[in-house]
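Dear colleague,

Thank you for sharing your sequence with our group. We've completed the structure prediction you requested, and as agreed, I am returning the results in plain text so they can be pasted directly into your records. Please verify that the sequence below matches your submission; if there's any discrepancy, let me know and we will rerun it promptly.
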Amino acid sequence: RLADYRAPAWTIDRIELEFDLDFEATCVASRLFVRRNGVHAEPLRLDGEGLQLRALRVDDRALGPDEYQHDARGLSIALDGDSAAIDTLCEFELFWASKQWDLPNFS
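Please find the predicted structure tokens below.
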């Protein structure tokens, strides 16, 4: 319902993606330029299932495991400023994706 709509806490102004495709696993390097939408303290939430997080940087600083939350459904990062550049390196197995989206098996 339109009455239930809530604007996102963060907006993504620009996305840069780089793919390393492989039959066994695919790596995706991303750079997201995010901006806080309004005055709030909500963390940035990035949804993504079946991804293995290999690296995470905020404004060119590597984050330690205690500086973010990563679960089976995605990633949450508490950001202090009103904007940031988020770099991630994720890997996912083609087998997982083929089962989720009924992709043909080419092997």
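Summary note from our side: Strands lie at 10-20, 25-36, 44-47, 52-58, 61-62, 69-71, 74-77, 83-93.

Kind regards,
the structure core
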